[in-house]
Amino acid sequence: MATDARPVAKASPGPGLDPFRAAWNLLTNVKFALLLVGTATAAGLVGVVIPQVPAPMRSNPAAKAAWLELQRHDYGSLTTSMDRLGLFDVFHTAWFNGLWIVIVAAVTVCTVSRFMPTARSVHRPPRTVGDGYFEAAHHRASFSHAGGAEAIERELRRRRYRVERTAERGGATYLFAERFAWSQYGTFVSHLALLMLLVGGLLTKLVGFDRTLALAETASAAPVFTDPGPGQIFVRMVDAYRGQDGSGNIVDYHSIIEVRRGDEAKTCKTTVNDPCHAFGYKIHQAAFFDDIGRLRVTGPDGRVLFDDVLDFNAKATAVPHIVARKGAATVFDAPVAQTGTIDGGAAGAADDIALGTVRTSEGDSLLVGWRVVGGTLKAFLFTGSDGLDLAPGVPVTEQGLTVEMTRAQTIPAITIDDMPGAADGRAVIQMPVDSSGAAFLVAAGIDEGAVVLREGANYVSSQGYGYTFGGRIEASGVSVRRDPGDTFIWIAVAMAMLGLGVTFYVPRRRLWVRVTPGRTWMAGQAERTTRFGRELRQLGVALGSTDALRPEDLED
Amino acid sequence: MADLSIYLFWTGLATSLLAGGLYVGYVLSGTVALRRFSAQTEAGTVTVSTPVLTANPGTGRLATAFLGMTVAALAGAVASRWAAVDHAPVANLYEFTVAFAFGIAAAYMAFEGWSRQRRFGIVAMPIVIAMLLIATQFPSEIVPLIPALQNGPLMTLHVSVMMISYAVLTVAFCGAVVYLAQGGEGHRRFRSLPSAEAAADLAHKAVMVGFPLLALGIALGAWWANSAWGRYWGWDPKETSALVTWLSVAAYFHARAGTGSVASAPGIRRVVPKSWRRGWRPDPMWWLVAMWALVMFTYFGVNLWVSGLHSYAGV
To answer: Residues near B305 by Cβ (< 8 Å), separated by ≥ 6?
Structure first.
């Protein structure tokens, strides 16, 4: 690389450090920009590779601690240090946000600082260069041809250059040519677009609204805002729907909802890809639940004590799925709900054995026990005083039935601490489905033994309390959102695409030419091509030169 | 139609193998061909053999012809799959990967035509073949589209633009590999391969197409996310990984714009030991290598090993 050996006059740093100037110099430096981009790249990659704490757990220390314990299995003793560094929540850490603040500052400073030089470069470009530049420029050509400066001017104009003669001295003619100078604003526009993106992002964060509601069918309308007021919006689930094809593939999720504000109401359908728009808000289908049941409890005096949904909220228990056959006929094919427990003696439930009953369609009854050992469900069949192991997929024969545990599965299960009529106020309720697919409740704690509640049937406990299972209810999670920032985002995207398009595809060229009677020199600038020098030499060929090309222009 | 798609896929794999072999043969023909020069001297006739740098043009034309057949067969495979599934076939990794292989082959063919330079095929074709072989490892059964993907226009646009951008950036990677193999600008280790300058030109031209397309693809994804989930950005692993890929290309442009060590930036040079500063100036083309590693990670790694909102687009 050619270097200028002459001493370069430097501005005196002056007494003391000017922090503003130092920061300005740093933020406008392209190497520093590269460092920032590289760091953002690495940080983003860390956030992708390392599991990130799920959003709902972020504000729940207990849930987050439990989640971190799970990560300890993979990251061992590093887990605590990684957590302290925020590596499990990269995108919400102070250092990541700080990095983006510096990037925002750098983009802002670059955008501001480049406007005047860009405008100067477009409107007042340097029309002359020293003769030495023709020998040292990265993109240059030198050749002999006929026609002199006029021929070059003609050829350049044919190629859409704006050409002007800048000087004539020492027998040489100097030309300055430029094409699409305005395209220099392209990078300015794309950097401005980045700023616009950040403005949009800030608006989203600061004034956007986002609330997720779980709405069950038949439940009363839920308020959207925590603070009541005249602008309060209520959303009621009319129908939560999940469609499956014959193979069990889910092919449709949607909810019919009623949105009400004051006296105005709007009923609309919301799907994953087509939200409902009401009162300036968008209501998105976010989730679907079918682990909700409806329960009605009446007291001994007939008064209704409880009549509402029983939300299992994804809580479940592991049970064996049993298939029993009599000859060729399948007489039972369902998960077995837990109806009792054998206390293992030790403190805690680790050595307890869960009990359940298989009641076949033929009226046979089998007692099944199971416990979870090392994360695996071990089931067995009680046969008098003995037990037969039920290994998954291995059938055993008992009472003329072929019994097989096909798999372990989970069924919704929840402990309710204030169940009316329960002996000590606590009841454990499970919601399995039977062989025909009908859901039912198994309640332990409201009477001696487990009580099975079939849909619609009323069970009266020994205390006189009545329990009616109203059936399984479907529900949807819907997100109510309003985001004033997104408009800025789409404007920014349009600006970025425009800026990139202009920067990359408008073939800007700037060219200085020195023409002497015997030889022509060209030197130029073009950011978006690595081979402008060859383009100049080929221009020489177009002018009739035979000595313009270099050997490397011929062989690739 | 589904069966026709499978037949065309295997046809594409077969023709790509032939094209790959022919590209290797084409490049090697420039190396192994020898020309003998004889001269009468006082010591008698002296014969000197020197390698000929011009590769066999017939082999090159045949390689391009088989590349064309690969593109046609894979286009047919994608089109017939589209007809069979009734939506753009980009909803699972098998469909993605076949479409990606088609995209790389088509993009490379376009750039080969533009650059009039066949020898980059020695890098591009093995990637196409590898993609097709990887596709054979994914289940190709047709399953109904899950509700989240049931937005025909946006799914087609977003995934197709992402796929095309990745395909074009793969061509940029091919240029970067040749450039770096040659030892960088001004060097030429392998006479049979294109010059470093030609490789840099191809890489840069491809990046100039791929970079805005990647930006557009990410923006279309944000648009879709905004309409489906109500937010345009959520730091989901797939979208973050795509952004990281985009940032790596942005880093390439910034690396090209600057000279000297990164550590010599004002402020930075005060805190970085002098001995480290010189080493902080890798060739900008290394960013394109990193970019392609990130493309592969985004494409396969995130789908197979990282769970997120795009996990439905897995195997």
So the answer is: none
Using alpha carbons, select from B262, B105, B311, B221 the residue that is nearest to residue A39.
B262
Q: For residue B146, list chain A residues with Cβ-Cβ distance below 8 A.
A: 249-251
Residue-wise pLDDT tens for chain A (556 aa)?
Answer: 333 333 344 444 445 567 788 888 888 887 788 888 889 989 999 998 898 888 767 777 777 887 888 888 888 888 889 989 999 999 989 999 999 889 888 888 888 887 888 888 889 888 988 888 998 888 889 999 888 889 999 999 999 999 999 988 888 999 999 999 998 888 889 888 988 988 898 899 899 998 888 888 777 888 999 888 888 999 998 888 887 777 777 778 888 999 999 889 999 998 888 889 999 999 988 877 777 888 889 999 989 888 877 877 767 788 888 998 988 888 888 888 888 778 777 766 667 788 888 888 888 888 888 887 766 788 888 877 677 888 888 888 887 888 999 888 888 888 888 888 887 888 888 888 887 778 888 888 888 778 888 888 889 988 899 999 988 887 788 889 999 899 999 999 999 999 999 988 888 889 999 999 889 999 998 866 667 888 899 899 998 888 888 777 765 4
Residues of B in contact with A39 (CB under 8 A): none
Q: Do A282 and B230 touch (CB under 8 A)?
A: yes
Amino acid in the structure at residue B236? D
What are the percentages of helix, strand and coil residues in chain B, rounded to 5? 70, 5, 25
Are A30 and B211 a contacting pair at CB < 8 A? Answer: no
Cα separation, A139 vs A122, whole angstroms = 20
ipTM: 0.80
Residue to test with chain A: of B207, B253, B286, most A Cβ within 10 A: B253
Q: DSSP labels for A15-49? A: SS--HHHHHHHHHT-HHHHHHHHHHHHHHHHHHHH
With contacts defined as CB-CB under 8 Å, which chain B residues touch A91? Answer: 235, 240
Q: Is the pTM of this model over 0.80?
A: no
Q: Which residues of A touch B208 (CB under 8 A)?
A: 504-505, 528
Identify each DSSP E strand in chain B by its residue range: 34-41, 44-51
Contact B240 A44 (CB under 8 A): yes
Which of A93, A530, A554 to mutate against chain B (most B CBs within 10 Å)?
Answer: A530
- CB-CB neighbours of A85 under 10 Å: 14
DSSP assignments along B78-144, one per residue: HHHHHHHHTS-S-SSHHHHHHHHHHHHHHHHHHHHHHHT--TTHHHHHHHHHHHHHHHTTS-----P
Q: What is the DSSP letter of A287?
A: E
B147 vs A contacts (CB less than 8 Å): 250-254, 271-273
Which of B227, B247, B302 comes nearest A41 by C-beta?
Answer: B247
List CB contacts (< 8 A) between A555 and chain B: 53, 195
Partner-chain contact A284 B230, CB within 8 Å:
yes
CA of A394 vs chain B CAs: smallest distance (Å):
29
B208/A528 CB distance under 8 A: yes
Give, in order, the Cα–Cα distances in Å from B194 to each of B18, B54, B121, B123, B142: 21, 11, 11, 11, 43
CA geometry: angle A52, A53, A58, nearest 5 deg: 140
Mutate to test the interface with B, among A20, A41, A480 (most CBs of B within 10 A): A41
Three-class secondary structure of residue B179 per DSSP: helix
Chain A hits for B268, Cβ within 8 Å: 26, 31-32, 35
Helix (H) or strand (E) holding A145: none
